[in-house]
Design a protein that fits this description.
Elements (H helix, E strand, L loop, with lengths): L1 H12 L3 H18 L6 H23 L8 H8 L1 H22 L2 H20 L5 H21 L6 H25 L5 H17 L6 H20 L9 H16 L1
Length: about 260
């Protein structure tokens, strides 16, 4: 049991949780929207999200040199800060090189626009305080995450519905994490998640594959049940909503 917990801990420390979620959903949406088993987004998107998460951890550590951030993940990044910086720079070079090889001009432009929006979001955080800032972060990150998964795939009405669906799914995930961080499973948080799930159900398109619809709805329902059942007791419990997202993406891809 302890070795299993250690394996999960490494998944968190290496910031692989969100990229793995992005990977399965990128695979699922690329097959839905292009009919292809492989697309450049399958590699570029998870790597870009990993780069963003690692950069966020390194910036957190740099902003808090005295060790005020007490999570195990931040302690791990603080201990190996220089090593992580080298790894991050190498990964950034790989991402840039692959994007030159695989992306056309229109896809490059979309990537630049998304990067600009992400930068604008990061800068805008300085203007927000208290709960409005937290809710703003959750909504913005959900929209950016969904945009990142779909940014290099063909655009159109179907892609727009996909973006809305995935944004709502990501928002359910982040609202759950917020309620856990506040030490609360109050009805208000559940109501917000339920509203997002209801919107998701209304948006699921009948033209999508059965696996895609099952994956989207299974993730939403699993996170709602988790909100009612589970109160987090340690940092690793934060992985559970991501596990719900991952398994739903896996169903959508393999279905």
């Amino acid at each position: 049991m302890q070795s299993r917990l250690s394996s999960w801990r490494w998944l968190v420390w290496l910031s692989l949780d969100a990229p793995l979620v992005a990977l399965v959903w990128t695979l699922a949406w690329s097959r839905q929207l292009t009919g292809s088993a492989f697309h450049a987004a399958n590699v570029l998107v998870p790597l870009a999200i990993w780069l963003g998460y690692v950069a966020d951890r390194l910036l957190d550590v740099r902003r808090s040199p005295g060790g005020h951030l007490d999570t195990e993940r931040h302690a791990f990044y603080r201990r190996y800060q220089r090593t992580w910086l080298v790894i991050w720079l190498v990964a950034l070079a790989v991402e840039f090189g692959l994007s030159l090889l695989w992306l056309d001009g229109a896809q490059w432009l979309r990537g630049v626009v998304l990067a600009g929006l992400s930068l604008g979001y990061a800068l805008s955080l300085a203007w927000w305080r208290g709960w409005p800032r937290i809710l703003y972060k959750r909504v913005a990150v959900s929209l950016l995450f969904a945009g990142g998964v779909l940014v290099f795939l063909p655009w159109g009405e179907e892609a727009g519905h996909a973006w809305l669906c995935l944004s709502l799914l990501a928002l359910i995930n982040l609202l759950q994490l917020t309620s856990w961080q506040a030490g609360s499973r109050r009805l208000g948080w559940f109501a917000l998640q339920f509203a997002c799930a209801a919107g998701l159900m209304l948006l699921v398109m009948p033209t999508w594959t059965g696996g895609m619809r099952i994956g989207l709805l299974a993730s939403a329902v699993a996170m709602l049940l988790l909100q009612l059942w589970k109160r987090p007791r340690e940092e690793l419990d934060r992985l559970l909503p991501d596990v719900c997202l991952f398994l739903g993406g896996l169903l959508a891809w393999l279905g």
